[in-house]
Fold these 2 entries.
Entry 1:
Amino acid sequence: MATDRSSAHGPDLNTVAGNGLVHRRMFLMAGTAAAASIASAALPNPAAADALQVEPWMKLPGSGFVGYGQPSKYEDKVVRIWNTAPGTIGTGTSRTPHHLLDGMITPNGLHFERHHSGIPDINPDTHRLLIHGLVKRPLIFTLETLARYPMESRIAFIECGGNGQLLYQKEPAQVGVQQIHGQVSCAEWTGVKLAVLLEEAGVDPKAKWILAEGADAAGMSRSIPMEKVMDDALVALYQNGEHVRPANGYPMRLLLPGYEGNMNVKWLRRIKATESPTMTKDETSKYTITLPDGKSLQFVLPQEGKSVITRPSPGFTMKEPGLYEISGLAWSGYGKINKVEVSADGGKSWAAAALQQPVLPKALTRFRMAWRWNGGPAVLQSRAIDDTGYVQPTREQMIAKRGTRTIFHSNAITAWSISDKGEVKHVYA
Amino acid sequence: MSTRNSLLIAVSALAFISAVAVAADGPNLGRVATPEEMAAWDVSIGPDGVGLPPGSGTPKQGETVYLAKCVACHGEKGAGKPNDQLVGGQGTLPGDKPPVKTVGSFWPYATTIFDYVRRAMPYNESKSLTNDEVYAVVAYILQLNGVVGENDIIDARTLPKVKMPNRDGFVTFARGK
């Protein structure tokens, strides 16, 4: 049993909020005893008599080189899960296993996906990007020509407008962070600024919007305000250093930092400058927020400030009382995360979490909070505050404003309860 | 708007002026596209109907197309199942019961149906319908929803004039409201 040092150091000095939230220095101060407790938090303690072994891999040469490396075979549970529309194998959503990851970058093979007609098998040599509409000179670009343009990199999250929709349900869905919040991921995207290409085409000042369209069989298309396009839209060719994955738009996708995932059109084939929105299927019949009075909010473009605790979260079992790190993700489509607060007592008291650097605008931000679990019931929550001062709402506040007639743009605080047996469950608190 | 944005827009505006004679700074590697080259890709149709192709269809003709290509996923007369319901649900948007969002109850523009069916449907064979077939199946869905009459002809001229029941049901979002 790990030593609980709170009595030795006096709980008052290190307590930052109710039910065991303590200052991060506890990790440093507590030394080896607490460190042992952290390491063993979710694992059975090795038996005392379990002497260190010289394992087989210490005695024989390891395996050889491979062209493209894969995770350890012991990591085979770290995978996406997905739902598909009836009668299809590739229309639907896959979700990132955030409960099994740490840091701010999502590995390419685990980035969430949303496809409207599967993943097209695009030959990069024949793929074309057309820029036309209200421009002086309509232009066609090949991948080869785009590769000669000056590029820039941008770490940005992409979040589906439907992420978190389970929070609109009447009763808390008995699933975990992957099922509830797995439609957000974050990568370093590298490519050509769309503004540069549009300037070469010569945009007519009458053009206040563009239509962006994909080369998939659904021809997924969305209208985007020209102001956003000229500000920071990127034609992304690379994702975390390698060519964008087929599932994420190979050979090129649109990146609109902070904007609704659906607008970050994958397999980008066409940009049309237009005077007004085209009113495509996805920006009218989907991705709009129907309010209690039956009216629907349209063009809800940046994703709102939001956060979620990824560890512990459902699927974890707390084995024993002691010192733990609460870890989670926060993000805002409007800018940077300024602060994340964590509560362990169902929202009665809150303390500021440590923000892992770098904290970047419109990127996932990792937060960390030290917690001494006393073995009793607890309710863990996090709330994000972005640099516009926006505070992530409670579920009650969100529903009071929006009702439950939509599935889109849910950004309420998520609560995980810990039972005295250490089980973690999704609850409304 | 930030200073940076204003600057960018100012720069863009300048670039536009100079683009008439000399294109803006950049490698200028795009090849100028001719209208003929773009025709097959220029398929998006906005509410004004600009770009709608020649052709026409009636609900009766559309029923034939629907039974051959659509009914397996969208059910008899657009009743839905296994995939999206296309017909009914009018009057269900406000209230306590879950809203039934269909083409008839929710979609604000008839042009969107043409745009979407032509580009994305039928699911397993998208872009395979002729323009006449698309007009006809749009006419059929509109007629099932009571939006057009049995004998109405849907074409490039009539489609943009169709007023959908939920045309005024949308409000542009503003943060904080």
Entry 2:
Amino acid sequence: MTDSNQPVSVSKDADVTADTARVERAAEETASTGGGLLRGSLGRNLGLIVALALICVAGVITEGDQFANVDNMLTVLRLASVIGVVSIGMTFVITGGGIDLSVGAIVALASVWATTVATQTMAEDTHWILLVGTALAVGIGCGLVNGLLIAYGPVVPFIATLAMLAAARGLAEIIANKRTQIVTVPGFTDFFRGDLLGIPVLVWIFAVVSAVGWVVFNRTTFGRRTFAVGGNPEAARLAGINVNRHTVMLYVVVGLCCGIAAVMITARTTTGSSTHGTLYELDAIAAVVIGGTLLTGGRGTIVGTVFGVLIFTTLSNVFTQNNLSQSAQSVAKGVIIVLAVLLQQRLARRANTT
Amino acid sequence: MSARNLPLRRRMLVSATAVLTAGVLAACTSNEPASSDNGDGDTNAVSSNDDAGDTVTIGFSGPAADHGWLAAINSSAVDAAEQYDDIELETAEGTNDASQQIAQVETFINNKVDAIVLLPTDGAALTDVAIEAMEAGIPVINVDREFSSPFAARTTVLGDNYGMGVSAGTYACQLIEDKGIEDPVIAEIAGIDSLPLTQDRSQGFADALESCDQTVDNRVAAEFTVESGEEQASNLLQAEDQIDVIWNHDDDQGVGVKAAFDNAGRDEFAFIGGAGSCNAMDWIEAGDMEATVIYPPTQAADGIKLARLIAQNKGMSDLVQVEVPKRVVLNAPVVNADNVEEYRDLCFES
């Protein structure tokens, strides 16, 4: 038994070493391209920039003045910001070799939990920060449960987060009693719906989350480990990374992002509701994937994700401006996903060979 | 506010209530008729139909109360039954699963209830079992979502989705005429576009607007959720610098629509809602909303009342006809600042 076992494990080790080398190379590649934002990254994101530009050109041609003004741009950015924050978190999980189907449900749960706390216990002397803290804590808590189940269960991510999707949405309905809870906490809506230097606070949050996400992703050990774990968990383990702990951390990150998104949507709509975040999982995954992140893990891009989110939000803005139906919009969305991925592959290949 | 009319109407209401109360005292029945539920706004007359009759068992089954309007449907049905000592209500757990609801109706048939009030999750899916009940001699009262066969229900109580659109459109025409707006921009925020009820509402709106030579300039469709309402309304506002009338189909999603208006700092248009939630009534009172078109959440309550009459072999005393009509389509009135007080008690929490 031991005899026969020996050679197998040796050859496995050899495989693993090769894989490790490949993963490291991929990680280095990503890191270097991420660093040279204008050169390598531009090449890889060219398809997305072209797609976004085409949509904008279509907007300018059809509805020139209405589309190309500051107000409209800020509206697009504001609408992109909630799903954008969720997508940044999703980029981490997918790059780390996982998937999170429960993001929308977590947003809903965090929003109703926070608004329930706000309406039940918020006395006049309590700050709205309690509402924000509750939402973030619920998001992190759900992410932690997801992560622990996936890392130590182990339950495959698809199933574990599918279970969370059902459970969190159900719990949200129970807590809110399927009612829409209107937030009247003084200061909260004023702050989050307000402007800072002429730009909506929600957009600032999206910008900050994206920037922090980019730095963590491309400039820290945590980011490097994410690529390694996603590329080949076994190799990552042999390289001394605590893969289980890292996996838990990844789901906590996306949970935190959902908590932030819950605060944002609560402010945007002035309500907490169990219907918030419907189908966010699909929107976020679509944005991440057309952004150029590999669905199988090991390769990812924050900049691409931001473009992915902007493409979809701008698209629905242009469609609404032209008074086109939602159904037409869905068709266009499907076409764009496929086109962007195809274009992305072609351009990436060319960028790699030159 | 039509200040001229109000005192007169008030006086009439007071005297009507007085007569009502006198009638109740004189009749001295064990039932508590409608006087308890609507207070001032109640103009329904009390008739000998409210006198206690044979005790009847009524089975009630409806969809899961997953939004404000359906929750109000259920609670007002239960309230209506509680007003009568001669009604024993068997309420089935609300469900969105057609097969489970079929099982509930089969249970009612086995229990030999005297009448069934059914708001189907899906009208077509529940038609067969309703026919089964009718063949077993149990009258079925169909509420809101219609069966696919005329043999499946003794009486059908429906809200009027097309009529909602017509009411909203007619009101919009009136506003445009009153304000003398040339070439107005009219926008519509629909609900889930694939539902027949949404299509009916939009058709009614378009038809009514056509009568004053107007069309819908911009139309978006949300999903009855607050979030989708906010998103669609935000984009809609960007499409036009100046809008004169916006009709939003549903006050549940209206919370988000209103948030989008506030976010964008826009209020140049007349904002008309739909359904009649308490939020909408609040906005109308505060002057933030022009009007809303009622889609009554009391249909099942009316269904219960009709079921009682049918089971007790009574007719509707205000009609010459001796039997309860085959079909009752409820009106879709417009509530604005002038009459919001009267409708306040019918509102529902979203």
